[in-house]
Write a structure and sequence with these properties.
The chain has 120 residues and is α/β, with parallel strands linked by helices. The protein has one domain: Ribosomal Protein S5, domain 2 (2-Layer Sandwich), CATH 3.30.230. The protein is built from 4 helices and 5 strands. Strands 1-4-5-3-2 form a 5-stranded mixed β-sheet, with helices on both faces. Helix 2 packs across helix 3.
Length: 120
């Protein structure tokens, strides 16, 4: 996967689709590149630099493990949240899969949410 390194790429992704999870926020936008691009960011409000770096390392490992789910012609940005430090990796992985599904199939995600609400 291609890495996003320039601020303009991150700002462009911020104008796209968004899926919020407990440990991270996933932003995505269509692009011209055939290979999917991914960038990582954690704001200073999350914690000190060792905490932010640990969150970024976990997000990088997460994206490598679920690389096959990222679709071509899209740029993705993972924004780390403080909960990513303590959340079990398996839950982060499950959340990323659902976030990608929500971004690429928004109607299906809304139907699933309505069905869960109707059952309860």
């Amino acid at each position: 996967m291609r890495r996003l390194k320039h601020r303009a790429q991150f700002l462009q992704a911020a104008r796209g689709l968004k899926a919020v999870r407990r440990g991270f926020v996933l932003q995505a936008i269509r692009c011209d590149e055939a290979e999917p691009g991914i960038g990582f960011t954690v704001t200073k409000r999350v914690g000190n630099s060792p905490q932010r770096n640990r969150i970024k390392r976990r997000l990088r490992a997460l994206s490598e493990k679920t690389a096959q789910k990222f679709q071509p012609n899209f740029n993705y940005v993972l924004i780390g949240r403080k909960e990513a430090l303590h959340e079990p990796f398996s839950l982060l992985e499950e959340g990323l899969g659902k976030a990608i599904e929500k971004i690429h199939n928004p109607r299906k995600a809304n139907v699933d949410a309505r069905e869960r609400k109707a059952k309860s």
